[in-house]
TrEMBL record:
Residues 212-323 form the STAS domain. This is STAS domain-containing protein. InterPro entries: Bact_StressResp_Reg (IPR051932), STAS_dom (IPR002645), STAS_dom_sf (IPR036513). Gene3D superfamilies: STAS domain.
Amino acid sequence: MGGNPAIFIWTESTLAGLISGLQRMVGTDRFRLALHGGGRDGVADDWAYISQYPTFEAGFTALTQVAATFGWGRWELVSLDRQAQRAVVRVHHHWETAIQKVLNVSWGSSYLGGKFAGIFQRHFGVAQCWAEQVASVVSGDKYDEFVIAPSNASLEDRLERMLATDDATRADLAVALERVRMEVEERAETEKRLLEKLSLIARQEDAIRALAAPIIEVWDGVLTLPLIGVVDSQRAADTMGRLLEQILQKKASYTIIDLTGVDLIDTATAEHLLKLVLAVELLGARCIITGIRPVIAQTMVSIGIDLSKLTTLASLRDGLTYCIDQTRKTRR
């Protein structure tokens, strides 16, 4: 999206399930800190985008439009005091809130808070900032609101203090991270296998379409296209494209369209056939129709198709003989 690698995830199932699984493995407090840190550490591109503009306010406003497009909600810079190094940001309708509503929990929007902390940390030019969430939609407020200011305690300090109070935390966190790593690897491998299968299916479909309507050069400058079965809109368009390409490549003067294998024809099929004949002749090649069965001829006449405008012969053999004779006469 916009030239950047992206992934599409269902919010109410896949993303909510992934987030809730992480929370269960590491606990709510560690989960919040981890999300805050992830948001803070992932703002390099956001800051680069903001820095393109003449002022921070202009860049931040532009970034809010991008954020809204990609599920990060509608951001509002409520206030910015550079002297006091304090900012207030308000957010409506973002993905963390949506997930918590689905799961019926109230964890707070730590990842988004971390993102704001990282942005204003760079703007204020300080070692670290902290985003304190003072309003939350899942707690009954109309919006999420964050107060961002410099902090003496970094996220790493807060995490270390938490780890120091829980002897099992380090082991638990390591296990959780290993489980997540394994899940990510498994999903990547599954995605790779699915892409390979889709590619194989696409190649097989191309091969089947080519076999269903093979284009054969039966004589110098003479192509034949035997049609079999039902000719629908998709098949007609595909066949026309391949046939016209072959006419240009082979510099064909004649094209024989053989209907021996067509059991039934309706108005739509007849129209596709006429369009195919017209397209061939627009390229300067003569189009011959062969193998029209009596029942098909009756059907074409009954639905108003003027066969007098078409060069028709009884069989593919007759069509080939006709084209060879015409080719020889032209060369004399």
